[in-house]
Design a protein that fits this description.
A: about 775 residues; Rossmann fold; six-stranded parallel β-sheet; 30 helices; B: about 525 residues; alpha/beta; 2-enoyl-CoA Hydratase, Chain A, domain 1; 2 domains; nine-stranded mixed β-sheet; six-stranded mixed β-sheet; 21 helices; 20 strands; about 20% strand
């Protein structure tokens, strides 16, 4: 019935780069050999023309593996050439942006299957309205304009009825009295006002404050970029929220089903004399048999939940355990669509078909959880030690309870993180901060799952499938094997245990084996320390256009500009002046801490005023003494080793620091490397507290580095940078191999996000001393006397 | 009369014996029948050192009186031993100060202007001004520092000259100033038989090029022990080099020896045998033990390193190097020799807080090995107290700590080299040149106060003989990870160490405890 009806027909499939579209194309190619032609509506994207998208996004999909195995690569290519054609169609434009040739192709179509949609539940409102609602309307208008009357199969969703109870019939969806044109108009124009709102001073200031608190020391451009990212995110979040709230208020679970419902109204209103069938699948999951058992693309609805269950992330979940969760395998939906396509309605009256399992093979929420429990007990996921993760037992609280619990926990974590990031402890809290970030992400994910999917586990309705079953009754026994679409044909246990769960686990690439190969051997023989940075140095050895740039304070030496100052000043004054001097320093401390947090440059400016009216010669001599007394004692041996490795590899080495020349130059001299540091202006042979040039912090550092690279012909993309603080971010960003050494909490986060190498270097143990000279030593006494 | 050293057997009434334990102490009960070897008591020092010095200079051995060697307009250089001697540092005035003041006075009388004083530190670290001042005294320091009192730099390309090759092909280099002087006066302090003689010039004023000739695993494995020059390949090599130097430049040697009064009154219990402890010593022991058990390491280190030894001079000789050194060794042996009959299966020793290379610094793990398996083990004549294949048990906390200023190359040696292999010969092949020529370590040696890059290797091979000789080496009370890195075994208590030794030496081994320091030389028959 199906193959015969479609023999010699030309069909058009929209959304063929999507999961369902692809499956439909594949099934037609494989099971309807006499089909005349399949036109694939594909839009040229910014990066790829439509033809290339066909190859890369459709034909290379594993969906076609079965066909390729049957026909061989060449046979498949031949078949594709014969049967497939690309029609450039842009559903985002009125008239679909059709060329003359495209119009021709459209006119040749006997069946149009509209499966293009933005299926994510949390898309921004404007995007959903554009794609789902206006896209469908434009397609119908274009068909009408072309003058032909192909059979239009509109693929919708079973949830267009909203959150109903009881039986949902195969007829027009819930209509809360909305005009779809008006809805489309309002929703698609939302972005403008929201964008505008995001630029209002109170919003922008808040975002800017947040960006500054996260990225402040990294300099103005970094803060600006962060602000823009936050604003973009804010706009998207608002649009998502708008969509969700609106959909909820209108009685829908999410923006997806809302816009799909509006689209149905539009299509029904516009179709005129075009024969129209509407297929409403429920929740589409991996294919039962075709093209291969478990064929699935992208994570859809239940997968994140299943994985969260298997990973033990969701210790509990809301929902009604006895509610029907309507899941339908993808190949059954494909077959339903094809059966519908083969049955052109005799009149202009639209026909609705539910591709759902609820009536024929009901599946209750508790059953899925039990199946998952069974599956993950048999095939547990593994944590990073290779231990099996136990499965949780869910108690099904209400969604509100769950959400409140998660939100409270989230607030605690956020508060803790706020505190931790503001502690003036540098690298020592980085680990704690990273842990908090991970915990926050986990809670965020859980909350998101609850918000998005919780509704579906509370559905108390059943989708009527009378029309589909009427179709099924017409299918002759011979074709029932080729195009099965009666959900009663399979068993859920088989589906979950053998098909769906294995697919989900495989796709998530979760660890399921105790350990690669075998159990740990228990060997305690020392393992060679490996550093990917060292390997990179090796690879680029012998190249003199490679630079290794090192920050000094905190990266090579465990100290900061304040400690040097303290040491040098204490060294130069008699013991009885120490208390007054220390009291003065303590009084100024909090202000410096505050400035340092805001911006390293501001801090340095302010701090270097302390050098006002000091004798440069004396400071130079003290700086040299500080080398032995402070610097060399607090140096990181790993850092010194790394510098030497770079030098051995023939790289240039540059110390780029905001510390003063008097303390850094002796070290650089000893290391025999170049140095770029801060210099103070002289006046009447005395130091002033003013800098000769802006302090090399934040973006000034990257500018310095850029200039240096240009002057010396350095290939920055091949170069290395080592730094410990967020204020070095612009410098780290410039080079090919950035290394965060003992990063502070904020840099640690950034490094984690960007996959940068993080190294922890330590002082040689037993060398920590207060940064003050030994007042008993004859050397000190004599120096003061002098 | 001071008592000679003694070997006593542990019986029911023997009090527990002191084990040095880094910056701490332990009192251990040894099994019945074990023997304890005690060093001789300190000899009576010379009553008037200045007079003795004057006498020695006026009547040198096999040489003319110093006065007759000094003449106006000559280029005179005084070289002296660095702060690795004596240990602990001597309470002021240091004997070297007394000798040098005498020599300088004579030079001034002779109208010599061109006088340089060089610390002959070889590849050791440069001393700080305070340390230098302590050795030479305020008078010399303020007169000559920094232009005419300075420290030898074995890596200075300008100021080291190549002297030639010995008959056995050993290269010799020398400090340029010394090589170009009309007369070099070497002021030495000999604490142990390893020091002094030709070794003073051939290592103290040399460079890596000439020191590597005898500071290598092969030579040290052939030195049984280097505390006994006649049996020491190290010394044979030094003598050949020294003779070549004496052919090049006129050297006048002044060697001094001190007694073994290593501990000040406050730590008298460390100096005395446990059988002699008075109530006051007991109390001091208890107080010290409490302090070292509770105090943080840095505090303990400050306390211990502040100790100055009340050494007394026991001999001073001047003149021709061999004649002088024979007399010097005679004096040293008189102070430290203890006759010991036969070897034992187990030898126990406490490693103290201080060795030659960690003055004013923590004793890092490599230096612990150097001190325990190097110096302490090698204090023997004839044959080791430990039988071949016996078990050596040492007590030291062996913490993972390094002085970043003095021992930077030790950190890399520990982190990189010892993680790779602990075999001295394999290390030498693979790493000797890399560490010796590392530019960063060279800079730190020359400009800061760091030991030469190769020095950790010398510290390590100093123990090569012990590692080869002992069947098992166990550290008591040490940091386990560190001891494993060093390639040895670790026990929590001495009893456990004996228990572990059973596998190697059986149920009823013979045991000797060498109660050092104060130092002694076991003359094993």
């Amino acid at each position: 019935m199906i193959a015969d009806a479609l023999r010699g027909k030309t069909i058009l499939v929209t959304g063929s780069t999507g999961f369902l579209g692809k499956s439909i194309v594949e099934k037609c190619l494989r099971s309807i050999p006499d089909i005349a032609r399949i036109n694939l509506a594909i839009r040229s994207s910014a990066r790829r023309p439509a033809g290339e998208r066909l190859q890369r996004e459709v034909l290379s999909s594993p969906a076609f593996k079965r066909l390729k195995d049957q026909l061989g690569e060449d046979g498949f290519a031949k078949l594709a050439r014969e049967k497939l054609a690309v029609v450039e169609i842009d559903l985002g434009r009125d008239g679909l942006g059709l060329s003359e040739q495209g119009r021709e192709q459209l006119r040749a179509c006997d069946v149009v299957i509209h499966s293009a949609a933005a299926v994510e539940f949390d898309n921004p409102a404007d995007l959903s309205a554009q794609t789902n609602l206006l896209g469908a309307a434009r397609l119908v208008e274009a068909l009408k304009a072309s003058g032909v009357r192909p059979h239009l199969v509109h693929i919708s969703t079973a949830y267009v009825g909203g959150m109903l109870r009881g039986q949902v019939r195969e007829e027009s969806p819930l209509d809360p009295g909305l005009n779809w044109r008006h809805e489309a108009e309002v929703l698609t124009r939302l972005r403008g006002p929201v964008e505008e709102e995001s630029r209002r001073p109170e919003v922008l200031n808040r975002l800017n404050r947040e960006a500054r608190s996260r990225m402040g020391p990294a300099g103005t451009p970094a803060v600006a970029r962060a602000t823009e990212r936050l604003r973009d995110r804010w706009v998207k979040d608002r649009l998502i929220e708008r969509g969700r709230v609106h959909a909820n208020a209108m009685g829908f679970s999410d923006i997806y089903s809302f816009t799909k419902a509006m689209a149905e109204h539009a299509v029904v209103e516009l179709h005129g004399d075009i024969p129209l069938s509407i297929v409403r699948p429920s929740i589409i999951e991996s294919a039962l048999d075709e093209p291969s058992p478990g064929w699935l693309e992208g994570f859809r609805m239940a997968e994140p939940l299943i994985l969260a269950f298997g990973r033990g992330v969701l210790q509990d979940f809301s929902g009604l355990p006895d509610s029907l969760l309507d899941i339908i395998p993808a190949d059954f939906v494909v077959n339903t669509v094809l059966a519908v396509a083969a049955n052109r309605p005799p009149d202009a009256e639209p026909r609705v078909y539910h591709a759902a399992s609820g009536t024929r093979n009901p599946l209750r929420f508790r059953r899925i959880v039990n199946e998952a429990d069974h599956y993950f007990t048999e095939h547990p996921l593994r944590d990073r030690y290779g231990q099996a993760i136990g499965t949780p037992s869910w108690t099904y609280p209400t969604r509100q309870e769950m959400a409140t619990r998660a939100r409270t926990a989230l607030r605690f974590v956020e508060a803790a993180q706020w505190v931790v990031e503001r502690l003036p402890l540098g690298a020592s809290v980085a680990q704690m901060s990273d842990d908090l970030t991970a915990e926050r992400d986990r809670l965020d994910r859980g909350l998101n799952l609850i918000q998005l999917y919780g509704v579906y586990t509370e559905v108390d309705c059943i989708f009527d499938t009378r029309h589909v079953m009427e179709l099924w009754d017409q299918v002759p026994a011979a074709e029932r094997k080729t195009f099965p679409f009666d959900p009663a044909l399979y068993d859920w246990t088989h589906y979950f245990q053998d098909v769906h769960f294995p697919t989900v686990v495989r796709m998530s690439r979760a660890e399921t084996v105790a350990r690669k190969g075998k159990q740990p051997s228990g060997s305690t023989s020392p393992k060679a320390e490996t550093s990917s940075v060292r390997a990179a140095i090796e690879r680029r050895s012998g190249r003199n256009d490679v630079l290794a740039v090192f920050d000094v304070d905190g990266t090579l030496v465990e100290t900061n500009v304040v400690e040097y100052f303290l040491w040098m000043r204490l060294r130069a004054q008699p013991l009885e002046d120490w208390p007054a001097f220390m009291a003065d320093m303590l009084r100024k401390g909090p202000r410096w801490l505050f400035l340092e947090r805001r911006s390293r440059a501001e801090f340095q400016r302010s701090f270097y005023r302390e050098y006002d009216r000091l004798d440069p010669e004396v400071m130079k001599r003290l700086g040299r003494e500080a080398l032995d007394a402070v610097t060399l004692r607090r140096i990181y041996p790993e850092g010194m080793r790394r510098i030497r490795e770079h030098k051995r590899a023939g790289h240039r080495v540059l110390l780029l620091t905001g510390a003063l020349d008097v303390v850094v130059e002796p070290l650089a001299e000893l290391l025999d490397v170049e140095v770029d540091c801060a210099h103070l202006l002289l006046k009447d042979g005395r130091l002033t507290g003013d800098l000769q040039s802006p302090p090399p912090a934040g973006e000034a550092r990257s500018a310095l580095l850029e200039e240096y690279a240009e002057r010396n012909g350095v290939a920055l993309a091949e170069s290395f940078a080592y730094a410990d603080s967020l204020s070095d971010l612009p410098m780290l960003e410039m080079v090919g191999t950035p290394v965060a050494v003992n990063p502070d909490a904020r840099l640690s986060q950034v490094a984690g996000q960007r996959g940068w190498r993080v190294e922890r270097w330590r002082m040689a143990p037993g060398n920590w001393r207060l940064p003050m000279p030994d007042p008993r030593s004859p050397e000190y006494l004599e120096a003061v006397r002098r | 009369m001071p008592r000679p050293g003694a070997v006593i057997e542990v019986d029911r009434n023997t009090p527990p014996v002191l084990f040095h334990f880094g910056e701490g102490i332990r009192l251990e009960k040894l099994p019945l029948g074990a023997r304890i070897v005690y060093p001789p008591d300190p000899l009576e020092p010379i009553a008037h050192p200045e007079r003795a010095i004057k006498r020695a200079l006026a009547k040198p051995l096999e040489d003319d009186p110093l006065k007759s060697l000094l003449r106006r307009g000559m280029k005179l250089t005084i070289a002296f031993d660095d702060l690795s001697l004596p240990l602990p540092p001597m309470a002021a005035p240091d004997v070297r100060q007394l000798v040098m003041e005498e020599v300088i006075d004579m030079a001034a009388e002779a109208g010599i202007d061109d006088l340089h004083i060089i610390a002959a530190l070889g590849l050791h670290r440069r001393m700080t001004e305070d340390e230098l001042r302590h050795i030479v005294g305020e008078r010399i320091f303020s007169t000559f520092h920094p232009d005419r009192l300075y420290q030898h730099d074995g890596e200075d390309p300008e100021n080291n000259v190549y002297v030639g090759k010995t008959a056995k092909g050993e290269e010799v280099t020398l400090n340029r100033r010394a090589a170009e002087s009309d007369l070099v006066i070497y002021v030495n302090l000999t604490l142990v038989p390893m020091d002094g003689g030709h070794k003073s010039m051939s290592t103290g004023l040399a460079s890596f090029r000439s020191i590597r000739v005898h500071h290598n695993a092969k030579t040290l494995l052939a030195s049984r022990s280097y505390m006994n020059p006649p049996d020491s390949a190290l010394h044979h090599s030094c003598i050949r080099q020294g003779q070549l130097i004496e052919d090049t430049v006129r050297v006048f040697h002044i060697e001094t020896t001190v007694n073994n009064h290593a501990f000040p009154a406050i730590a008298n219990f460390m100096q005395k045998r446990e059988t002699d402890w008075t109530a006051q010593d007991q109390a001091m022991f208890l107080a010290t033990k409490q302090m070292t058990d509770l105090a943080p390491p840095a505090f303990k280190r400050n306390v211990f390193h502040a100790m100055r030894a009340p050494y007394g001079m026991t001999a001073v000789h001047a003149g021709q190097v061999d004649a002088v050194h024979d007399k010097t060794l005679e004096a040293v042996h008189k102070q430290i020799n203890v006759p010991v009959e036969g070897q034992t299966d187990i030898v126990t020793m406490g490693v103290p807080y201080l060795g030659p290379y960690n003055v004013n610094a923590p004793m890092n793990p490599i230096l612990v090995v150097c001190m325990g398996l190097g110096y302490l083990f090698n204090f023997y004549r004839n044959k080791p107290v430990l039988r071949k294949g016996g078990v050596l048990i040492l007590t030291h906390p062996c913490r993972y700590e390094f002085d970043a200023v003095q021992h930077p190359s030790y950190i890399d040696y520990y982190d990189e080299v010892l993680a790779d292999t602990t075999d001295p010969i394999a290390i030498e092949e693979k790493y000797e040149v890399r560490f010796a020529e590392d530019p960063w370590f060279r800079q730190l040696y020359r400009k800061s106060h760091a030991y030469h890059g190769i020095h950790p290797h010398y510290a390590w091979i100093w123990a090569a003989h012990a590692m080869e000789h002992a069947g098992d080496i166990i550290f008591v009370g040490a940091d386990r990870d560190v001891v494993h890195r060093l390639g040895f075994k670790c026990a929590t208590t001495l009893e456990d160490a004996f228990e572990m030794a059973e596998q190697t030496v059986g149920r009823y081994p013979s045991i000797t405890h060498l109660r050092m320091p104060p130092i002694m030389l076991a003359d094993v028959e």
